[in-house]
């Protein structure tokens, strides 16, 4: 790894950052083209890169998700798996966004984004630290709410139906539901987006915690 690549390892960077590091080259853009041709650089989208080769495995996929489409935060199944709630491996990095929903495929993997209203977007967010970088993500409460609101044609009209869906369809553990912060769930439910369904989630969690 050369002196240009060392400060970039594990990071996602734009064209300006790269050309600044290549200032000693007479033609920085030619050097960038050469690095791309040799797979020393991986293009993520126009003007956005990470290092190729073994260095790519050290890049935070959560951070990549934040950069690829935004404003966005990592959530739903990928964050539930990150928190240790999903029994099956989640390959696609799932996020919520303010702009239109979309899917993105890159050398780092697949990324999906589900659009939500601004009034709901801002609740239940945190920063997750990975090494010397951090990415914006949902808390466990918001990630679970996001799974529900982002699932097409999902209709849950009772507390018992909510329990069945979480334990049977999503295969969550009842102990995980016990650990949820009821106040955070209520904040999500009171945001004015799919309130009836999220209210059933709040009622279920409260019932389990007081059982």
Structure characterization notes:
The model has no long low-confidence stretch (mean pLDDT 93). By secondary structure, this protein is α+β, with helices and mostly antiparallel strands. A four-stranded mixed beta sheet has the order 4-5-7-6, with helices on both faces.
Topology:
Blueprint: E1 13-14, H1 15-21, H2 28-37, E2 41-45, E3 48-51, H3 61-68, E4 72-74, H4 76-82, E5 93-97, E6 102-106, E7 109-115, H5 118-121, E8 125-130, E9 133-138, H6 140-150, H7 159-169, H8 174-178, H9 182-189, H10 195-209
Parallel strand pairs: 5-7
Antiparallel strand pairs: 1-3, 2-3, 4-5, 6-7, 8-9
- Which stretches are poorly predicted, pLDDT < 50 over at least 5 residues? none
Strand content: 15-25%
The helix count comes to 10
Helix and strand pattern: EHHEEHEHEEEHEEHHHHH
Secondary structure: helix percent = 40-55%
How many strands? Answer: 9
- Distance separating the two termini: 57 Å
**What topology, given as strand order, has the largest sheet?**
4-5-7-6
The profile of the biggest β sheet is: 4 strands, mixed
């Amino acid at each position: 790894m050369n002196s240009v690549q060392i400060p970039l390892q594990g990071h996602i960077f734009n064209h300006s950052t790269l050309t600044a590091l290549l200032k000693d080259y007479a033609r920085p853009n030619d050097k960038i083209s050469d690095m791309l041709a040799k797979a020393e650089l991986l293009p993520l989208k126009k003007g956005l890169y990470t290092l190729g080769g073994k260095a790519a495995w050290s890049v935070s996929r959560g951070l990549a998700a934040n950069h690829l489409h935004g404003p966005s935060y990592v959530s739903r199944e990928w964050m539930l798996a990150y928190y240790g709630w999903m029994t099956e491996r989640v390959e696609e990095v799932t996020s919520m966004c303010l702009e239109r929903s979309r899917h993105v495929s890159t050398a780092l993997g697949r990324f999906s984004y589900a659009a939500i209203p601004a009034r709901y977007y801002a609740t239940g967010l945190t920063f997750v630290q990975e090494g010397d970088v951090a990415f914006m993500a949902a808390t466990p409460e918001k990630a679970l709410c996001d799974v529900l609101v982002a699932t097409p044609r999902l209709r849950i009209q009772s507390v018992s139906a909510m329990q069945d869906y979480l334990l049977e369809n999503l295969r969550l553990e009842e102990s995980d539901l016990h650990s949820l912060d009821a106040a955070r769930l209520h904040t999500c439910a009171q945001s004015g987006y799919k309130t009836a369904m999220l209210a059933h989630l709040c009622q279920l969690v409260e019932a389990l915690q007081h059982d």
